Each structure stands twice: as structure tokens, then as C-alpha cells.
């Protein structure tokens, strides 16, 4: 609203100038504008989901911590301390943190456009911005939770620091890339198919053995190893575990395959997202 020192004519002139900046913008200006839109959507998502009471936005980290730490404690309590020569807690943490990232980012992608359809009345907001903001929030929250869980496990003596931080960071980067691309692809598909929306939660549970979260590919009979090698998420977890355990494990992953599969998912997902307005119930 105009202040008392700004006349209505001046206010409308400034408003027209602001609107004019979005007509035929340069590539850099358009990129910066969409970054601000995504940042605003991300802040809105935090406030609407977690509110301002109690620990508020810290639940972005707290929720995945409860999942990851809870599962690690239960598995450590009921399973042998070592499996195939590897500490059970380290096995669970290195698998369940990436699994949590995938499940949370995918869960928030289902019908993401429909539940935020009112935002699409704003000229600068696109379906792609909505799903990017949601996926980024889940990925950042899970990474911070994973750092805290791993630090706690190391300080309590249940696992050691990684022997190769480069491989851990590379594997984590591929995990983020896969979760982001999968969410971008899943969001427009669930807008187009009600069956996929209903079946997604069941499908994710049934596909847990294909994620490699609780097993190494090398532990499988050789004729079945291709199943986990075909999963980009299992490949990235194998890379993380090689960085954590070093020569104690025999990893099975392919960097070109992970790059190609995630990039194809991302390209298809971006195309479908940008052409999904007609499928959204507004």
C-alpha cells in the first residue's frame, strides 16, 4: 500500500515500472526472479507445515532425525552388532538417511500442484517452482538430520568417521540428484493419473528391497546383482558406503549410469511439469 508521503499517482507509476521489468526480461533477470519465487515458496512451505509454535521450522530437521535415529536404535538393539564384518549401526545409518530423503521428497511430490493450486493464480509462480521448493526443502532437511545422526553415532562409538570424504560427498550428491529428479517427475505424473497417486505409497513400500538401504549388492548371488545395479538410489548408497567403509566393502555402481538415468528423469519431469496446468484442478 502507498505510504502517506506517496501520492496515488506516484504509487501507480512505480507499480507500472515494477510490472514492466517482468516484460521481456533478460535471462539473468528471469533466473533471479524465479530464484526469489522459489525462496518465497520454500519459506511459505515451512510456515504452513510447521507453524511458528514450539520448535517451529526446526521440525524440518527434527522429523527426519526421529525417523533415522529411531530406525538405527531399533536395528542396533535387535540385530547382531556386525554383519558381513560391518558395524550394524553404520550400515543402517548409511542406508536409511538416503532412503528417508527419497521417501520424503517423493511423498511431498504426490499431488503437490493440486494442494498448492491457488498459488498458480500468481503470474510468476509455475508448477515447476512449487515442486522445486518442496523437493529442496526435504533434501536440505534430511541432509542436516543425517549429519547430526552420523555425528551422534560416531561420538557414541557406534561407527567411525568415513575413510574417504570425497566418495561420501559424491554419493550424497548423486542421492540428492536422484531424489530431486524423481520428485520433479512424480509430481506431474500423479496429476495425470489418479491410479498412480493411490498406488504410490504401496509401490514405495514394495520397492524398498530395490533401494539397497539395508543390503550391499555384493551380498546377493551374482545372477541377481543386476537388479540393484539398475537402481540409481542403490548405486549412490554403494558409493557412500565405499567412502565410509573403504576396503571393507566391494561396491557396485556406475557413475555414467547414475548421471544418465537421473538427467533423463529430470528432463522428462521438467517438460511434464511445465505442461501440467491443464491437469490441475483449480
Task: Please write out the topology.
Elements: H1 8-20, H2 27-50, H3 59-78, E1 82-83, E2 86-87, H4 88-109, H5 112-115, H6 127-155, H7 165-192, H8 194-206, H9 225-229, H10 232-245, H11 255-274
Antiparallel strand pairs: 1-2
Helix pairs in contact: 2-6, 3-4, 3-6, 4-6, 4-7, 4-10, 6-7, 7-8, 7-10, 7-11, 10-11
Radius of gyration: 22 Å
Largest sheet: 2 strands, antiparallel
- As residue ranges, the low-confidence spans are none
Task: Give me the secondary-structure category.
Answer: mainly alpha
How many strands in all?
2
Order of helices and strands: HHHEEHHHHHHHH
Question: Which strand-content bin applies to the residues?
Answer: under 5%
For the record, give the distance between the C-alpha atoms at the N and C termini, rounded to a whole number: 28 Å
How many H/I helices?
Answer: 11
Q: Record the strand order, biggest sheet.
A: 1-2
